[in-house]
Prior knowledge:
GO terms for molecular function: transaminase activity. With 369 residues, this protein is an alpha+beta fold. 27% of the residues lie in helices and 29% in strands.
Amino acid sequence: MTDTTLSEPDAALAPLEFAVTKNLAAKSPAVREEILRDPGFGTHFTDHMVDVCWSARGGWHRPRVQPYGPISLDPAAAVLHYGQEIFEGIKAYRHADGGIYTFRPEQNALRLQRSARRLALPELPTSYFLQSLHELIAVDGGWVPSGEDQSLYLRPFMFAKEAFLGVRPANKVAYYLIASPAGSYFTGGVKPVKIWLSETYQRAAKGGTGAAKTGGNYAASLLPQAEAYEQGCDQVVFLDSDGNIEELGGMNILFVKKDGTLLTPSSDSILDGITRNSILELARDRGLTVEQRAVSLAEWREGVASGDITEVFACGTAAVITPIGALKAAGFEDEQPIGELALSLREELTDIQTGRREDTRGWLHRLDA
Ligand code: PLP
Ligand code: COI
């Protein structure tokens, strides 16, 4: 039978044969359980990592599962100088039956391929991407927590490791996958966040790399993020090159309107969020109207002032769905209305992800079988 889930070249690929080296210094189950009790976000890592090499001559080769640890790099490795790097963020959830599932991983594989094209990196075939997730879960499945709002955050990434100082796409590249047990992204759980409008800095530009998940976009967001903290805010919202609302440093933004419309910006510089696309689908199925178009700051502010906008929220894999409680800028501070849609969509989405609600759309992918 033909597997229609894979593209032609992908379908023809034989699986990689991973060489597995077990971590002899793996954390004991007791230490692991202690970490999983309150994992925070992004500070603890599992015992193993996956890596696959790529070269222009040999393609993808040397697939390995090895103990988690430092990477040895030549000081002239291109990534250290020119930032030729991309990554993904995806979570694994423990269901009540003990099974380990992830959410729409093919979408992350495709986005990694789109990011690769923009950054002149090789495209990792979808089947290899999925296989890397399975390989890591096979050795580190015990790290997937089962508590409320907990998951194992998986971080696939790829970078230029060839050593040279000329500016050109590297001929040697590494793909890695690491994993980190996660609780809530924001300390204190789900509560409305206050966001800072950056009018001085942008994270991305027209024709730039905004739609790619590449380190440089996040580097560009750090100074405005520091400014946000100084202003007593949790996150930054950026404007695009046309001066319209773009997105947050690591999350997309959505507006709920009184007439039952869910509105979200469209722009070439926005990261096409899988959480956002899933929310739009859930919203359509609830009978809401979905609109994706340019949203100006004036439309936002006037909408809140007139009552036309009834809720504003941010979403992404790490933070799931987070209501926005206030928008602050150099010249104003606007309280944002808090409604019930954001939290109700959050519940529906996380219920599907964690197996509390039936997955009728084929979004879940089992990783431990
Ligand atoms: N926008 C940016 C800049 C992000 O880093 C993320 C997080 O991955 C998102 C949006 C949300 O994307 P997703 O829902 O696929 O995690
Ligand atoms: C994610 O939501 O997966 C992100 O990548 C956001 C942030 C942690 C960079």
